[in-house]
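Chains adopt folds. We examine one example:
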Amino acid sequence: MYIFNMERKIIEKLIEWKNSPSRKPLILQGARQTGKTYSVTEFGAKYYSDVIYCNFERDPDLSSIFSNLAPSHILPRLSAIKQKKVIPRETLVIFDEVQACPEALTSLKYFCEEAPDIHIIALGSLLGVAVNRNQYSFPVGKVEIIDMHPLDFEEFLTAREENFLLEQIKECYAKNKPLEEALHKKALEAYREYLFVGGMPAAVSNFVQNHNPLQTDIIKNDILAAYQNDMSKYNKQSEIAKTRLVYASIGKQLAKENKKFQYRGLKPGARASEFENALEWITLAGIASKVARLEHMALPFKANASDSDFKLYMSDVGLCCASQNATYDDVVYENPLFNDFKGGLVENYVYTQLKANHLETYYWNENNQNEIDFIVRLKNKIIPIEVKSSTHNKSQSLKSFVSKHKSPYSIRISAKNFGIENGIKSVPLYAVFMIR
C-alpha cells in the first residue's frame, strides 16, 4: 500500500458514475495491483458518508449471506456483520475480489432491479478469467463496467508534482509548437524513468519518494511473482506451465526485429492449438494484450483483423523491463547494448498509453513491407502512428500509407520535439498520453 495521496484519473469517472441518474452497480476490473482498491476506498471516503468494504478472498465466510440474492435479504445481514447501516445514496458498498464469490456477482442484477439507490462497486482482478473459464453468471445489461489501468505518463508526472511541465506539454501538443529545449530534455528524462518504473502504483510511489531503483525493482519483481502465483491458483493444472511460458516470452518476442508473436518462439515445434488457452488466460487476466494485424484497411476494424497475426504487449512497461532484468542504467542512460530490446519496449510503452485512453489499436503491413506500428481512429478518422525510440526518423511507411489510404494526417512518435511537417504530426515520446 502506498503512503502518499496518489491522484488517479479514475476518480473523475467514479464521480460521473455516482451522479448519473441512470446509475447501475459498477464493476471496476483490471490487473492485480493497478490500484483498484486504493482508488475506490479513497473515493468512498471523500464522496460518501460511510463505506462498507467486503473482501471475498480474505473473508470467504461473507459468501454465506448470498444464499438468497434479494437485496432485502443481503443488506440487513451485511449491516449486522459490518455493524454499519447501509443508507441509500450515502453509503458506498464495495465488493472486492468479487470473482471469489460468484453469488455476489450475480446479486448485482437484483441490486440494479430492486435497490437502485444502493451504490455498489465490485472489484475483480481476475474477473475475466472467472467469468469465461468458470462460466459464472454475469449480470449482462445490469451493470456498468470500467477498466482500471496502471498510471499513465500524465499521472506519473502528477505524482512527481511536475504540474508546470505537464501544462506546457499539453499546450504544445494542442498548438503543434516546440516545447522549450530545457523542458523538452527534462520531459525526455522523466519519460525514460517512466520506462523503467512503469505505472504500477506501488512502484511509482516508492520511486517518487525514495528514488531507489533497486527498491523499485524489488517491488516490480514481487508483482511479477504475484502474477505467477495467480497463474497457478486460478488455472487448470495442465495449463500452468504453458501460461507462465507465454507470459515470460513477451519481452523476448518484443526484442526481435519482427515483433509479431510467434509460437515457435516458445519452444521448438510449438503450435497455436497447444498454447491458445494460455494466451487467452493472460489476456483475460488483464496482464497482457493482443494487437492484431489489419488484413484490409476497411471498417469496422474488428471485422478486418487477422486472427493469427498479432503482437503481444504487457500491461505495464515497468513490468516488461523487470521481466527481462533491464536495469535503471540500461534504460535511463540508454546503454547501446540495450538497443535491440529498446524498440519493443518503447512500442509496449506507447501501447499502454493508447490503451489507457481507450483507443482501439491495430497494426498494418503490406506484403511484409511498410509496417505501421499502430492504426487508430481519432475523431472518426483513420490515423497511422509510427513509433521511433530516437530522433533518427525516416517516414517512408507513413508516406506510403497516407498516399494510398487518404488519411488526413499521420503521427510520428519519437524523441523529436513537437511540430507538424508534410502532414506528419510529431509527438514526443513523453506526450503519447495526449493522443485521445
